[in-house]
Amino acid sequence: KQAQQMQQKMQEEIAKIRVEATAGGGMVTVKMDGQKNVLGVTIDKEVAGDVEMLQDLVMAAFNEALRKVEAESQSKMSGML
After folding, report:
1. What is the C-alpha separation between 79 and 65, in angstroms, rounded?
2. Which H or E run contains 75?
3. Are residues 24 and 59 in contact, defined by beta-carbon separation less than 8 angstroms?
4. CA geometry: angle at 62 spanning 13 and 34, to 5°?
5. CA 73/CA 35 separation, integer angstroms
6. Could you give the CA distance from residue 40 to residue 35 in angstroms, rounded to a whole number?
7. Whole-model pTM?
8. Would you say 42 and 65 are in contact if contact means Cβ atoms under 8 Å apart?
């Protein structure tokens, strides 16, 4: 029972995580929660015309957001154990 409570508390803590990652010096910004749901994407008008660069920047921002979520999740879990 105690393990279930601890697992539920960890899931609640992970759900509270919010990260923001940028690429291209802030030209693309991705916001993500601890469950890896995308909360928002912001794209600077300057890169909107260059499709290949935009694709690279979006991919880089998403990957960075995922890394941040993973790192913060690990940190919260190790802090609770």
Report:
1. 21
2. helix 51-80
3. no
4. 5
5. 9
6. 14
7. 0.84
8. no
Q: Which amino acid is at 6?
A: M
Number of H helices, E strands in the chain: 2, 3
d(CA 48, CA 53) in angstroms, rounded, equals: 9
pLDDT in tens, 14-65: 989 999 999 999 999 999 999 999 999 999 999 988 999 999 999 999 999 9
pLDDT band for position 79 (cuts 50, 70, 90): confident
How far apart (Å, rounded) are the C-alpha atoms in residues 81 and 79? Answer: 6
In this structure, how many other beta carbons lie within 10 angstroms of the beta carbon of residue 21? 19
Contact between 21 and 68 (Cβ < 8 Å): yes
